[in-house]
């Protein structure tokens, strides 16, 4: 089955699945159809699908993975000061690490906003519908929302990574100020993810900036310091985790991490 046939099948399935989508006009071009497919997947609630849907979805996402180009760790250079630490600017969903970290919300179900430009949305998009369903089952078993500073692990499905570590980091609300309580919770989020990777005998983890605020450099700098120090302290006692990639998506953040690490 070629890509266009896969997209046609997946769109048809999703539109028939939800009566609210029956009036949707499907674009005639493949690019428009793929955009609509992502939007429908973004808003789809966590529920089971047919085995044929999963097979075709997985085949399609494997094609997308190849198109987007996988980034292997041996393509990256470690920092000069510590060969266990890396800095990489780019889309975390392209990294082939044992685990990538997803900064999620308390419901832990991913971003439901269609086509939203956030890592949470991209991770769920390129992993597949299985990821949201796994997260839903974890929350049902737990019986309450995920507390700030804690973490959960799921398979990464169609992502290059093997696993996704989901964590809820603190939300900065008071004039962009990182309070001592926020700082402690942020360190706890990083530590929870690294500890979960260690528990599952994973060796490489990609860590995004779990809290940033473009309006003030103060938060970015102090949050980066917390991420780096927490990671360094953890690695001193780790038996399995031996590669940590600090993932950034802005030039300013890249420069900041380079200054702090080198």
TrEMBL record:
CDD domains: Macro_OAADPr_deacetylase. It holds the Pfam family Macro. This is Macro domain-containing protein. It comes from Streptococcus gallolyticus. Residues 72-262 form the Macro domain. NCBIfam families: PRK04143.1. Gene3D superfamilies: Leucine Aminopeptidase, subunit E, domain 1.
């Amino acid at each position: 089955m070629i890509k266009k046939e896969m997209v046609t099948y997946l769109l048809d399935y999703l539109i028939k699945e939800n009566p609210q989508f029956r009036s949707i006009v499907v674009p005639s071009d493949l690019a428009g159809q793929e955009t609509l497919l992502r939007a429908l997947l973004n808003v789809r609630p966590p529920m089971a699908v047919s085995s044929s849907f999963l097979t075709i979805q997985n085949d399609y996402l494997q094609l997308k993975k190849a198109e987007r180009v996988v980034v292997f760790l041996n393509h990256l250079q470690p920092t000069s000061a510590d060969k266990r630490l890396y800095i990489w600017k780019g889309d975390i969903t392209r990294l082939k690490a044992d685990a990538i970290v997803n900064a999620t919300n308390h419901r832990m179900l991913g971003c439901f906003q269609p086509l939203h430009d956030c890592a949470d949305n991209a991770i769920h998009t390129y992993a597949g519908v299985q990821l949201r369903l796994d997260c839903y089952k974890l929350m049902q078993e737990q019986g309450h929302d995920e507390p700030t500073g804690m973490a959960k692990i799921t398979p990464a499905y169609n992502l290059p990574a093997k696993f996704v570590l989901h964590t809820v980091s603190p939300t900065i609300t008071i004039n962009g100020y990182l309070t001592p309580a926020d700082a402690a919770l942020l360190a706890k989020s990083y530590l929870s993810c690294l500890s979960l990777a260690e528990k599952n005998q994973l060796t490489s983890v990609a860590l995004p900036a779990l809290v940033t605020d473009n309006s003030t450099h103060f938060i970015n700098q102090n949050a980066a310091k917390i991420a780096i120090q927490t990671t360094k302290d953890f690695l001193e006692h780790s038996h399995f985790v031996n590669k940590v990639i600090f993932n950034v998506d802005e030039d300013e953040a890249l420069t900041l991490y380079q200054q702090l690490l080198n």
